[in-house]
Here is the input.
Amino acid sequence: CNSESSGSSGGTSKGKGDKIVVGFSQIGAESGWRTAETDSIKKTLGNDPQFELKFSDAQQKQENQIKALRSFIAQKVDLIALAPVVESGWETVLKEAKNAGIPVILLDRGIKVKDESLYTSFIGSDFITEGENAAKELINLMGKDSKVNIVELQGTVGASAANDRMAGFAKEIKANANYKIIKSQTGDFTRTKGKEVMEAFLKSDGDNIDAVYAHNDDMALGAIQAIEEYGLKPGKDIKVVSVDGIKDIFEAVIAGKSNIIVECNPLLGPQLAQAAKDLKAGKEIERWIKTDEDVFVGKEAAEEALSSRQY
Ligand code: GZL
Here is the structure.
């Protein structure tokens, strides 16, 4: 760390006067969830005079995130916040940040590194639990003795959210021989791709599909459109379960077109701001700052929750 860094726990290096300068490398704007996360961080840090926020949108490309991190290092920011598009390929640039004495906080997706000291904390959800809850609620809804063929719309290839939501769901499904994942393919967390992949599934297995599990609501909303255009009723002929909890999916459940929502909280601004202040003060912060989340099943639960939804 350079001489100006403060605190025992990788405290931030020098800031502009007493401002905490944060460089935030965001993945992109692929989903309603993602833009909600960006808004939360811009609003929280942007409205707090203690912070100066530098923001970069990587348009889904890891190389753009690495470029952004190198720029933040050159600008000697006090803290780097990174939402890593995929789990691997971060060692080199994170070593550069460590050598520059700049702590890194991961937002909403994890990474795989041998040297755990390359990042200070992960603020985000337990995706394995989200996948497990999606499967458990689907089995509750359709009955453990029913024969159910499922198609799965995976998130971005290599993303921790996709890998772990797939693993958690598969673990629960494997425990029930009546439930089978007959097709699984990435829809890259977007509505467009989610619709395209669901169209292909319907073409190849249409009358054999009982449920669709989408790793995020945007792909589920695309799939709902595909199911309707195919001539079936989403939420009835083909049950729908997805993760995130954006407003549009609550409206789809209320309209009877989707069935189960596993919430994943994108409003990480306050937790990031608090962690940055704690680091500046030289305090230890938790290695995993978890977000608490809910599950919503059926029309009533969705109607009850809709008015309080913030994203
Ligand atoms: C989850 C986040 C995922 C969301 C998607 O923390 O990484 O990325 O579930 C978003 O909507 O694209």
Q: What stands out?
A: Residues 30-31, 33-34, 108-109, 124-125, 161, 189, 216, 218, 243-244, 264 surround beta-D-galactofuranose (CB under 6 Å). Residues 127-142 form the longest helix (16 residues).
